[in-house]
Amino acid sequence: MSAVLHTTVVAEPVAGYRLSLRRFARNKLAVAGLAVVVLFLLFCFVGPLLYSTDQTHTDLTQVNLAPGGAHLLGTDAVGHDELGRLMYGGKISLLVGLASGLLATVIGTLWGAVAGYAGGWVDAVMMRVVDAGIAIPALFILLVVSAITSPGALGLIVILGLVSWLVPSRLVRAETLTLKNRDYVLTLRATGGTHGRAILRHILPNSVSTIVVAATFQVADAILLVAYVSYLGLGVQPPSTDWGGMLSAGLTAAHSGRWWLIVPPGLAIILVVCAFNAIGDGLRDAFDVRGRG
């Protein structure tokens, strides 16, 4: 009986994921978003290997050059090649966004799963902590901490992860409340299985759809938050930069016709954030059981 139940539990999610994958592939906007993200990952991580530039030292003989010739997107106020800087800044923006989104999702997933599974006063206390955290804007906390510590990329990842886990925790808790009363979880508990085993073996694997969708939106939000903070001069410090820092550095050139200092990083932020949101929407629709026909 146990073997049959285990086979059924495993087979149904596998078939469901295959169906979800097909549904996602039929969503043209989501697929386009995935293509945009892949292209930007190649641009930022493979591009510097093919288009090598010096993003550390200044060259005052090459300042504010218009696009063309040796500098396809021109240069900035200290002589950095703008195309190379777009790759360099994008690498930091994407790394911070992906890593902090993953960290926030992991923390939120564990917190929400424990709260939902435990129930009672444990759930009440843990979720009041979440409610209190949500009441304080994440951007405000990030600005205050960044102003005090002047964090690098690693610091931004940790700070963003610690202020962005609240929403995923509520989503996973809601999913856990429905899953903990399923037959396979009750059977495990009746046969002496531990609470940790129930969470890790059944609750979390069957919450993958919710977790993946939440992680996708967390990455988009993290990239935007990093851009906000860097635009205000509180992000990674020179000579490092990200797309928000590039926008901030090029702000004074906006009235001088040097569009290449503003448009490329601005478009990059918009495209990547919209792409991750499109992927998140596509995944949410693909995993939505009510939409399956």
UniProtKB/TrEMBL annotation:
Keywords: Cell membrane, Membrane, Transmembrane, Transmembrane helix, Transport. InterPro entries: BP-dependent_transpt_permease, MetI-like, MetI-like_sf, OppC_N. The keyword Transmembrane applies. Residues 90-280 form the ABC transmembrane type-1 domain. It is found in: Cell membrane. The chain crosses the membrane at residues 29-51, 92-117, 154-172, 211-234, 259-280. It is a multi-pass membrane protein. It comes from the Bacteria. The keyword Cell membrane applies. Belongs to the binding-protein-dependent transport system permease family. This is ABC transporter permease. It comes from Streptomyces cellulosae.
